[in-house]
């Protein structure tokens, strides 16, 4: 089983071979501490539902923090010695993401406040509270908005080009994020030209207000979320920015969007809500958006049908997986002297 890292943490990979046959391993077996040169060596392990341990891609994998002391102790924790050695990540740590339309995440801000219906089952909130309960330093304030100056320059250390989702655990344009800090985030993005940065906000009015104070290099894609017609004005605000690539995320899609004006939009993502209490999405809502994109030659990405078990509902629309990206992506990587987008 792969244990996936969360933003702001070092991650290890723990392998539990199916041959192990253990349906559960007591949590106390992992009260160990690994120390090395990689920050603190924090790892996470699924503990609340042992039956999920062998499900590689379950969205709720990260439920418990374990601190691993040394390999010997870890091995002795399992009587069958079936736990494969911990593999240290290569430096510097890259926070790989399971989000289908990006490669990795970077969270210079964590925490947020809810602003519209789309926020009702906010994944970032759920995860922040879990990480706080697990004692992860970066989330000591839970879901309270917190800026993290210490990770401001992180992407500069990542050599391989990748698509980076900025603030998957917050909203960079939240009113409480100081303008100077937003500008610092932009400075890093301006410098880290090897990457594409995907900034997604539910507060595009603030983006438009700050537009002239920000430097919009072509590697910054600016997006806004629209979950229902009530928030169509966000699209107008986005259009008032100088971002070279503007995108729209209709996720969680909570209703039809018949009046979507996609002029000037370079990419559209759509998807249903997933996780506990997920609200249903209807196929005709998604089709309508897809058809408009096809008509206007705008790349369309269908992320998921969602639901409580999103793996079961999948992400096929009318027999096809819609995985389109902005044309700018291909030309961007081509211009980076043949560097290809890495696989997440
Ligand atoms: S804006 Fe995003 S991060 Fe903030 S509460 Fe809403 S869904 Fe969560």
SSE layout and pairings?
Elements: E1 31-34, E2 42-44, E3 65-69, H1 71-77, E4 104-106, E5 109-110, H2 123-133, E6 146-147, H3 154-157, E7 163-166, H4 179-191, E8 196-201, H5 204-210, E9 220-225, H6 233-239, E10 245-250, E11 267-271, H7 283-296, E12 300-304, H8 310-313, E13 316-317, E14 320-321, H9 327-335
Helix pairs in contact: 5-6
The structure holds iron/sulfur cluster.
Residues 112, 114-115, 119, 122, 124-125, 170-171, 202 line the site of iron/sulfur cluster (SF4).
Which class do the helix and strand fractions yield? alpha/beta
CATH class of the largest domain: Alpha Beta
The count of domains is 2
Assign a percent range to the helix content. Answer: 10-25%
Mean pLDDT: 77
- Helix count from the secondary structure assignment: 9
Distance between the termini: 17 Å
What does the overall shape look like? globular
Major sheet summary line: 7 strands, parallel
Bound molecules: iron/sulfur cluster
What does this structure look like?
- The protein is α/β, with parallel strands linked by helices and 344 residues long.
- The protein has 2 domains: 1-91, no CATH class; 104-335, TIM Barrel (Alpha-Beta Barrel).
- It is 22% helix and 16% strand.
- The chain contains 9 helices and 14 strands.
- The strands form 4 sheets. The protein has a 7-stranded parallel beta sheet.
- Helix 5 (204-210) runs parallel beside helix 6.
- The longest helix is centred in the last third of the chain and has 14 residues, at 283-296.
